[in-house]
Structure formats: structure tokens, C-alpha cells
TrEMBL record:
The chain crosses the membrane at residues 30-52, 64-87, 107-124, 144-166, 186-212, 246-269. It is found in: Cell membrane; Cell surface; Endosome. Pfam families: 7tm_1. The keyword Oxidoreductase does not apply. InterPro entries: GPCR_Rhodpsn, GPCR_Rhodpsn_7TM, LPA_rcpt, LPA_rcpt_EDG2. It comes from Cyanoderma ruficeps. This is Lysophosphatidic acid receptor 2. It is a multi-pass membrane protein. One of its GO terms (molecular function) is lysophosphatidic acid receptor activity. Residues 46-213 form the G-protein coupled receptors family 1 profile domain.
Length: 291
């Protein structure tokens, strides 16, 4: 029967994974937290405005805008998650209970997964409308609600799995260095799942680009194309491709790089050491602001 370390401190697991904890606040730590709180506040405000605009403006009462509002809700949730992180990071990390640490990480994982899956849903919706030459999807309100519910169910499932057993509290040798209470196998599963969704989204937008480019080339060869038909194509390009490409430019660097780092770092960076009593001396070891 395996021995579990449910009564140990967070510092015990950080020491086991050889990840340092800050013992006191330094100017750099304060700056990181201050900037993090400021960015979180901006994220909260801007996404609240997006949600309010979609809710109050009848022109936005279409599936694509509901999905955009849900993306704003996911980003809003991310703002809350990072604000919670800023209040529970640095030297405060060593003082967290195991439950609070899992809550902190689950908020981050859930918010990122919700954003990535929602971006895929938007890409699929735009793909469908572009190929059928419709400016707005004919998806029913019930299907939109069901899709949004499914997005959050998947995000919550992936984010809460570690709290319900897929952790390393009973298997110290499997602990990750990046998230010392998480199993490396879970981090890899979570990162690969999000990476697959992200790659599928890129492929969907790529197909839209190719399709629209060919469509526009055919229209250019037939100068007698109906003006209304041409306007519909251009509107689809604006609503489907421009939004998607702008989002992808930023997300390729942030999400793709982060997920690959998690996958590689979880397995190839610093194997944890299995040592009873670990963490007894780590509370006094200076380090950087840790997540």
C-alpha cells in the first residue's frame, strides 16, 4: 500500500521537486505582483465591457457573438484566476494549504482550457458559415447554449482532475518540477489535450483562408459577379478571418510555447527526489516568485 503525504506542507513538495520558494518579499517580487494585479484588472474591465455589449445590443444576438461573449467570459475567468494567483504567490506560496494550492492551479488550468476550446468553437462556426456563404450561423439558441455548456464542462473536468486524484501526493517520484503537487503524466495529458485543440483550430482557420482565397480568385475572373454576393464574401472575410488571424498571432506565441514548455519541462527538467522530511528547510531558502 502506497504512503500518501496529505498532511505535509506545500514546501515539502517543492523541496521534493527541487523548486525553490521565496522566503521574503523582494522589490522584484512586489513589481511582479503589482503588474500582475494591474493586468488582471484591465482584463476584467475590458471583458466585462464585451459581455455587456453583446448582452445589451440586439445586433449582436447571433451565435458568433454569443461565442465571442463566452470567450470574453473565459478571459474574465482567467483575470480572476491570475488575480487569485497574485494574492497567493511569492512568499505566500509556502503558507498555502494543499487545498488552496490546488484551487489556485485549477483556476488557471480551467481558464486556459475554456479559452482554447472556445476559440476552436468560434473557428468551427466561422468555417461553417463561410462554406455555406452565410454571414450568420443558423445554429439554434438551444445548440449555442449546449455548446457553451460543453465548453465549460470540458474545461472544469480538465482543471479539477488533479484535485480528485490525479496528483502526486501518493507518488513523490512522479511529481512535476513546474507544478510540484501535480503528476507529470497529468501535466502532459493537459498540455497535449490543449495543444491538439489549438492545432485543430489553426487547421480550421487555414482551410478558411485557402477557401476564401480561391473563392475571391474565381470572383476576380468573373467581373460580373453579383454585388450582393461579393459583399457577403467580404463580410465573411472580415468577421471570420481578421478576428481569427489576430487572435492566432498572439496565441501561437503564448499558448503554443507554454504548452510545449509544460510537456518538455514536465519530463526532462530535474527529476524530483524522494526524501521524507523534505521541505523542512526550504521555507528559509531565498528564491523567485513561484507559481
Amino acid at each position: 500500500m502506497r504512503h500518501c503525504f496529505y498532511n505535509e506542507s506545500v514546501g515539502f513538495f517543492y523541496n521534493n521537486s527541487r523548486k525553490e520558494l521565496s522566503a521574503h518579499w523582494r522589490p522584484k517580487d512586489v513589481l511582479v505582483v503589482a503588474l500582475g494585479l494591474a493586468v488582471s484588472a484591465v482584463v476584467l474591465l475590458t471583458n466585462l465591457l464585451v459581455i455587456a455589449a453583446v448582452a445589451t445590443n440586439r445586433r449582436f444576438h447571433y451565435p458568433i457573438y454569443y461565442l465571442l461573449a463566452n470567450l470574453a467570459a473565459a478571459d474574465l475567468f482567467a483575470g480572476v484566476a491570475y488575480m487569485f494567483l497574485m494574492f497567493h504567490t511569492g512568499p505566500r506560496t509556502a503558507q498555502l494549504s494543499l487545498k488552496t494550492w490546488f484551487v489556485r492551479q485549477s483556476l488557471l488550468d480551467t481558464s486556459l482550457t475554456a479559452s482554447v476550446v472556445n476559440l476552436l468553437a468560434i473557428a468551427v462556426e466561422r468555417h461553417r458559415t463561410v462554406l455555406t456563404m452565410q454571414l450568420h450561423s443558423e445554429m439554434s439558441a438551444q445548440r449555442v447554449v449546449g455548446l457553451i455548456f460543453s465548453i465549460w464542462a470540458a474545461a472544469l473536468l480538465l482543471g479539477l482532475i488533479p484535485s480528485y486524484g490525479w496528483h502526486c501526493l501518493c507518488s513523490l517520484e512522479s511529481c512535476s518540477r513546474m507544478a510540484p503537487l501535480y503528476s507529470r503524466s497529468y501535466l502532459t495529458f493537459w498540455a497535449v489535450s490543449n495543444l491538439v485543440v489549438f492545432v485543430v483550430m489553426v487547421l480550421v482557420y487555414g482551410h478558411i483562408f485557402v477557401y476564401v482565397r480561391r473563392r475571391m480568385a474565381r470572383m476576380a475572373r468573373h467581373t460580373g459577379a453579383h454585388p450582393r454576393h461579393r459583399d457577403t464574401v467580404m463580410a465573411l472575410v472580415k468577421t471570420g478571418l481578421i478576428r481569427g488571424s489576430l487572435g492566432l498571432i498572439g496565441l501561437v506565441v503564448i499558448i503554443l510555447g507554454g504548452l510545449v514548455t509544460i510537456i518538455l519541462g514536465g519530463w526532462f527538467i530535474g527529476a524530483p527526489r524522494h526524501r521524507h522530511g523534505a521541505g523542512q528547510d526550504r521555507h528559509h531558502h531565498p528564491g523567485w516568485v513561484d507559481c
